[in-house]
Amino acid sequence: MPATAPKPSPVPLGPAPVLLRPAPVLLRHVGRTPWSAPDPQVRPCLRRTACLLLIFAASLLADTPREIIDVFGAMAAALTDNNVTEFIGAFDKDMPGYGKLKTDVTALMNQANISSSVEPIKDEGDDVSHKMDLDWTLQIRSLYPDGPIVNRREVIHCELRKQGKHWKIVSLQPMEFFAPAKLDK
Q1: How far apart are CA 20 and CA 7, in angstroms?
Q2: How confident is the model at residue 108 (pLDDT cuts 50, 70, 90)?
Q3: What average pLDDT is seen over the chain?
Q4: CATH fold of 49-178, please?
Q5: 177 near 114, Cβ under 8 Å?
Q6: Residue 123 neighbours by CB under 8 Å, 6+ apart
Q7: For residue 9, which phi and psi values (nearest 5 degrees)?
């Protein structure tokens, strides 16, 4: 009889291990999914927050008086809030092209929802006048539900003068930046 190797005896391992799993967690989104657009009541708050953050970042420019930064922050907020009076109030009424600028901005605000941000990139001046270059961004969204979106970004050159206690814009180029958008589908 041929010799065979002895079979190893099974070693008892004890009871089968119990795998602990966490209980399933049900995630529930109330109102909207994380990828949907904010509610219309929330959008103005988000816009103002973005504008305030840009104003804060711009205020880090040490040589620019706070009053000038506030002028451009108010203008960006006015565009976002659809407030022609506040936007145009930053300009000297004797500025060349003032009437056309007012007409263009009014038409732009009547045709679209606007998101606006502005950041100073160059500033020269004294206590009476300033010349500034601004990196200005506009997102122009058609009022129609499936309407187009136009994005604009340009360096805007402007000159401000102190008139009494307030800074007023006396020159702005290019004014066409604030012209109505072509929102054809």
Answers
A1: 35
A2: very high
A3: 78
A4: Nuclear Transport Factor 2; Chain: A, (3.10.450)
A5: no
A6: 61, 63, 64, 68, 130, 131, 132, 133
A7: -80, 140
Cis, bond preceding 174 (omega within 30 deg of 0): yes
Task: Say which DSSP state 64 is in.
Answer: S
Length of the chain: 185
Question: How far, in Å, CA of 134 to CA of 68, rounded?
Answer: 12
Q: What is the 3-state composition of the chain as percent helix, strand, coil, each rounded to the nearest 5?
A: 30, 30, 45
> What integer pLDDT is reported at residue 46 of this predicted model?
58
**pLDDT band at 52; cut points 50, 70, 90:** low
Q: Give the C-alpha separation, 5 to 20, whole Å.
A: 41
Q: What are the pLDDT digits (tens) for 21-51?
A: 444 444 333 333 333 444 455 455 556 655 5
User: Count of H helices and E strands in the chain?
Assistant: 4, 4
Regarding pTM above 0.85, the answer is no
Distance CA 93, CA 84 (A): 14
CA-based nearest residue to 51, from 7, 10, 83, 8: 83
**Between 108 and 10, residue with greater pLDDT:** 108
Token digits for 100? 């056309």
The residues, ordered by sequence, that sit 6+ positions from 50 with a Cβ below 8 Å of its Cβ are 115, 117
d(CA 85, CA 112): 17
What's the rounded Cα separation, in Å, for the pair 88 and 86? Answer: 6
